[in-house]
Each structure stands twice: as structure tokens, then as C-alpha cells.
Write the C-alpha cells for this entry.
Amino acid sequence: MHDQAARLRERLQRSVQTRPTRLVTVTSGKGGVGKSNFTLNFALGLMEKGQKVVIFDVDLGLANLDVLMGISPKMHLLHLLEPDRTIWDILEKGPNGLEFIAGGSGFTQILQFDDQKLDTLFSRLEHLQGYADTVFFDTGAGISHESLRFMLSSDEVLLVTTPEPTAITDAYAVIKMIHSKNPHARIRLIINRVGSRQEGKNTADKLSLVAKRFLGMEIGTLGYIPDDASVSKAVKQQKPFFLSYPNSQAAKGIRELVDAYLDNAARNPQNDGGGLRGFLSKMKNLIR
Ligand SMILES: Nc1ncnc2c1ncn2[C@@H]1O[C@H](COP(=O)(O)OP(=O)(O)O)[C@@H](O)[C@H]1O
Ligand SMILES: [Mg+2]
């Protein structure tokens, strides 16, 4: 009884907050370039600045945000289809109260859903509208139709690459693919594992120059994250480096990216891409 009252109170509190939510897809061309580590630690960096963040783990093959946080989620996306489930039941809590949803293989299965099932799922997801400042989708690597749906439905794509030539060419392939479906898509680069700021800048310049010259597309840069042994150490300890090594070069890099992101968000207030509701309706059109 007491439990139920507490839950109701929590739901009411949550439903009165309302913010213009940014929907951001984090992706890459090549795998293993640091998408999940970026997403997790960047989210923690934003939270440190008082932002409300939710991460959606939608890496279909290798959902591993939970492993990076050292927790095992009890609920995943498809539990939302059970009778009387709400979005708050499937929001899992990680370190520092970071909220995330484990996608599991849910998004591949959705494609086989009939309209009624899809409507149930999406209308329940919609309750997250206005809850967070940013919702991140941590996708798998490469050019899959699943990842593309997220990229095309989001307000923005954060494209992670390293300075390695193979990662750069694969990142360019992603830019080309997004451009072919939406030439006005908003893409910003994150150059991870840089040996120096100059190396980061050279990599970003190279990619944006090629995108500009061959596609006529303007690509932004969010920033660079140094190559830092603390990242791998933290991964082995299953703790985010932003928390276990707050003074590491990688954590400092994340803080710079957070400042750049917030600064940009303040200068370009969300001129309503429709928030989560808009995202879900775009997604639905791409599925059907
Ligand atoms: N900035 C970094 N410095 C050093 N190693 C890194 C850095 N970022 C990522 N790594 C290494 O790359 C591995 C893969 O990172 P991960 O975030 O899982 O990539 P993805 O999600 O793109 O597959 C990590 O386990 C870590 O060892
Ligand atoms: Mg990953």
C-alpha cells in the first residue's frame, strides 16, 4: 500500500516536469571506436551540470552499456508491452542515478509488430516526453537500417571516429548514407583517442572538408577526447572513467565536450523538432 502511494507520487512528480527534449543518436562507421564509453561518460558529464539525461541502449548485437556500468538490467524495452507496464518500470538506474533503457533485441522485433502492438509500445514510450533534456541512443556500428532509422528520426547525430584512416573512411560512409536520405541532417563529429589536439583537429578538418566538397554538406565538430589508459582501466573495473578517474585526460576531454554541447544548445534553443513525440512519429513512418 505504502509502496503504491510512493510510486504514484513519483509518477506525478515526473509528469509535471516538462522540457524541450533533444533526441541525439550516437553512432560510428567502424566498431570499437568508443561510442558507448563516450555516451555513458558524456551523459554523466551533463548530469554534473544539472542536466536530465536518459540513455537508450539500442546497440542490437552487442548491448553493452550495462556491462560498462557493472549492472545487469532487470527490464528491457519489450517489457513495456506487458499489461499495465509504464515507462517508469523499465527505466533502469546506473551510477550517480543515471537513467537508461536496455533496448536488447527489441528494435529488430518491432519491425514484425502489428499496428496495435506498435501503438501500445510507442504510446507508452511517449510518456518520456518532456522528462529529459537529452535522450541519447547508443547505436551499433556501421550502416544498418536499424541505426539509420534512429539517425533520421533524431534531432542530431553525434558521429564518433578515431584518427585511424579506416575509422575515418567508415565515418565518411555514414555521412554519405545520412546525406542521401536527408541532406539537411545535423551531424557533429567527436574525434576519440587523439594523440594531440592537433591530431583531432586534422581529422575533423579532413572529414568536414570532404563532406563539404563532395556532398555540399556542413558537418560540425563537438570536440576531441584524448587517448587515455584510464578508459581501458575503467572498462575493466566496470565503472565509468568520468567517475573513477575524474582527473584523467579523458574526463577532462569529456568536460570540454559538455561545455561545448551546452554552449551550443544555449545558442540554438530547440526550435521544436517535436521532442520525443516527433521522434516517435518519424520512427513510425520509417518502420511502416
Ligand atoms: N579515449 C580512449 N582512450 C583509450 N582507449 C579508449 C578510448 N575510448 C575507447 N577506448 C577503448 O576502446 C574500447 C571500445 O570502446 P566502446 O566504447 O565499447 O566502443 P564502441 O561502443 O564504439 O564499440 C574500450 O573498451 C577502450 O578499451
Ligand atoms: Mg558500443
